[in-house]
């Protein structure tokens, strides 16, 4: 079993602690949190061992799970890598692209594994349709959330939209050509609502909207490609695949057939895959254990996390 330690025992850190303690692939050694009062409360309530310094925790483990505020990701990762420890680091990977690239370089020199916590890659609805997404040419995403003070230390692009940026970059096999965006600060000092348009060299266009002051929660993405429309509801964990094929000569009574102006007839049919429920955070942690044990590439690499941050930064620089 891989000895794991968690840096950060806030809302998400406590979830990681619980899941690591339950996993068959990890031995949870303990945690560190900069807020001593909170750390002692977590230790007393859940029984996880509290280390009073970062260095002491890192020295005692094989893998460091970094679930601290984004501004400290870089320093935490550098400390862990310097001691030759594998790192799982929550999104966004770091505060700047330069920091992310330095961490990637350090990781490769030490021949250790790193993964970024872009958890939507493990959403069961996305997993169910991922293989059906082929060369999408238009993508539309809406990620809306009710106001929560947690996370407002960064723009909504790094708080919410970066999930969708990573998903889009994982399915569009082309370089980003241009980015245009606008954002508005309503409650926070940084934008709370943002819209971005990403154009790729292959002609694909992605339109992303994110808000953290919505009256309802929504996490939906739609992919449009030749002869297919794919919808993923990341919140409800549902998906829909609508495909078109040449219509039969004699359609059945219940066949849905469209005819364009040139007289070409297409039949619409549904190809909705089964969605297998899972715990996405547990899955991302356990696939990282597999990558460590088997010396294979993690599902979400530090390169992936860096590229998502790079595009997010391009968007933020438009404001």
From TrEMBL:
Coiled coil: none annotated. Pfam families: GFO_IDH_MocA, GFO_IDH_MocA_C3. It comes from the Bacteria. Residues 156-216 form the GFO/IDH/MocA-like oxidoreductase domain. Residues 2-118 form the Gfo/Idh/MocA-like oxidoreductase N-terminal domain. GO terms for molecular function: nucleotide binding. SUPFAM superfamilies: Glyceraldehyde-3-phosphate dehydrogenase-like, C-terminal domain, NAD(P)-binding Rossmann-fold domains. PANTHER family: BILIVERDIN REDUCTASE A (PTHR43377). This is Gfo/Idh/MocA family oxidoreductase.
């Amino acid at each position: 079993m891989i000895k794991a330690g968690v840096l950060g025992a806030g809302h998400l850190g406590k979830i990681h602690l619980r899941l690591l303690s339950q996993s068959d692939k990890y031995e949870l050694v303990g945690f560190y949190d900069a807020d001593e009062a909170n750390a002692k409360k977590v230790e007393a309530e859940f029984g996880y061992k509290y280390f009073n310094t970062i260095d002491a925790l890192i020295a005692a483990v094989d893998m460091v799970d970094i679930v601290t505020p984004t501004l400290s990701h870089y320093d935490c990762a550098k400390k862990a890598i310097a001691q030759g420890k594998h790192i799982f680091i929550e999104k966004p990977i770091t505060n700047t692209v330069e920091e992310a690239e330095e961490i990637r370089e350090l990781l490769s020199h030490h021949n250790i594994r790193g993964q970024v916590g872009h958890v939507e890659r493990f959403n069961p609805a996305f997993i169910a349709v991922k293989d059906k997404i082929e060369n999408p040419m238009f993508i539309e995403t809406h990620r809306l959330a009710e106001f929560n003070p947690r996370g407002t230390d960064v723009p909504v692009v790094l708080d919410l939209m970066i999930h969708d940026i990573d998903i889009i970059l994982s399915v569009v096999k082309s370089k980003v050509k241009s980015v245009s965006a606008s954002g508005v600060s309503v409650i926070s000092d940084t934008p709370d609502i943002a819209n971005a348009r990403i154009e790729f060299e292959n002609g694909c266009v992605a339109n992303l909207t994110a808000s953290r002051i919505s009256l309802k929660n929504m996490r939906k993405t739609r992919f449009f490609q030749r002869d297919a429309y794919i919808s993923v509801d990341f919140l409800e964990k549902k998906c829909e695949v609508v495909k078109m094929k040449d219509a039969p000569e004699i359609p059945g009574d219940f066949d849905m057939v469209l005819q364009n102006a040139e007289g070409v007839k297409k039949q619409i049919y549904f190809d909705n895959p089964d969605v297998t429920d899972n715990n996405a955070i547990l899955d991302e942690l356990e696939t990282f254990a597999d990558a460590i044990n088997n010396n294979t590439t993690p599902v979400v690499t530090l390169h992936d996390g860096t590229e998502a941050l790079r595009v997010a930064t391009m968007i933020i620089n438009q404001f």
